[in-house]
Amino acid sequence: MDSPEEPARCPARGTCPVFLAMSSGTVCYAPSGLCPALERNLGEEPWGTDSAPQPDQGLPPPLPAVPVPWKSVGPCKGRRESPGALVETSAGEEPQGEEGPAAQLDVSRLRSSSMEIREKGSEFLKEELHRAQKELKLKDEECERLSKVREQLEQELEELTASLFEEAHKMVREANMKQAASEKQLKEARGKVDTTLFAEFQAWRESPTLDKTCPFLERVYREDVGPCLDFTMQELSALVRAAVEDNTLTIEPVASQTPPTVKVAEVECGSANTCALSGLARVCRHRIRLGDSESHYYISPSSRARITAVCNFFTYIRYIQQGLVRQDAEPMFWEVTRLRKEMSLAKLGFFPQEV
């Protein structure tokens, strides 16, 4: 037997809070402009609001719950809200619906601005990247150039060091050869040196003096100085020797023509054609003066060479005595020997011819 037909029930029956509120009379539903009245579909049976809620029978599953932000309006005071309040609330929400296109326009503008900023930022970053790459390339080229310069400098430094070492070795080798030659000459010279004369000179050099009694000067006086200053005129020769020892003898050249003004105190002994020391007729181009005396004596070139050789020897001896000669004993001895040789040659009549 067929069951009696039952009126169609609300699909939201059961646990729907809206249905419970409307069925209990707590909330009164009033359609508005924003929410038009619900109409049933064609052929749909009216809903029965008097029947108790029934469980879902063959109905599609309920829609999933969508989280909606809730705004607290204050604690509930246990009173019902009037339908007018709901209407006012719906009316207050109407401007928000009207502002929807403007908000969408603002969103579109924001999106376009964001896209422009993003594009500009992308272009700026690309430019910065390109510039950084260019700077990096320039720095790489500079580093490569500096590396080449450093390699070139290192190579030049190595070549310079090698050349300096070669030059230093060459100089050392030449110095060693010169030293060896000098030592060889010294050995040969030592073989030629009279050991007795050298010993006497070393003894005199330790305490230099002009005393004639020392062995060194006594030998030189006897062998060189005495014979070199031994002239025919013995008296004048002794005066010349004393003046040479005291370093008070003066030799002056004779002018070709006698000047018109002559000092009255000057006394000329002899003539310009006779040597006052040897007594020989010779052309005298020099004259001597002894000490502070105003007397002048004409001498020949031979006599002048003998006196000059002795004066040179005494001058060098005085330099050694005063400490003006900074040499070893051997070079000083060879110089003394050379000066003695000059006295011997002048004594024998060997002297440079004067013009």
Automatic annotation (TrEMBL):
Keywords: Coiled coil. InterPro entries: RAB3IL/RAB3IP/Sec2, Sec2_N. It holds the Pfam family Sec2p. Residues 58-67 have a biased composition (Pro residues). Residues 122-192 form a coiled coil. GO terms for cellular component: Golgi to plasma membrane transport vesicle. Residues 120-189 form the GDP/GTP exchange factor Sec2 N-terminal domain. Residues 39-105 are annotated as: Disordered. One of its GO terms (biological process) is exocytosis. GO terms for molecular function: guanyl-nucleotide exchange factor activity. Residues 92-104 have a biased composition (Low complexity). Belongs to the SEC2 family. This is RAB3A interacting protein like 1. It comes from Microcebus murinus (Gray mouse lemur).
